[in-house]
What does this fold into?
Amino acid sequence: MTQPSPPEWLDVVMRLCRNGFDPDGSATGGAQVQVFDRATDQLVYRQPIAREIRLDDEEPLLWFRQIVGDAPPFDLDVCRRRSLFTTDAAVDGVDRVTFPQPQATTGEYGIILAADPDQVPLLDAWDTWKLSATTAEEEARLDALTDDS
It folds into this structure.
């Protein structure tokens, strides 16, 4: 029996997260999450996200790790994993995925899209730190997105 194809939005998010990653050089791109107030459409949160994502096995959630800070070493208690409900997630344009968040009680919705140019240095710092200052076990744990720190 064949596995169902991943949804189109997941392919877009994976491509955005991996875009611009260069293990031998500087990052040239990546992804960010933006969160908006549903009532006003005002941006309330904007943060670059790490390269790895994970679909939850039991709930309709997409897990990712926000990158917070301005340079290594990064505090993993601050760069915690976050999630968006995937219910009704849809590609909105070429490089943009909207997550309506119908289950959320916060009155917000999320969008994952290409990182803005001002976020690329932070993505590069994260990539460099993760590849050079973490052990293989720590790196695997970060990639798995199963715990917050």
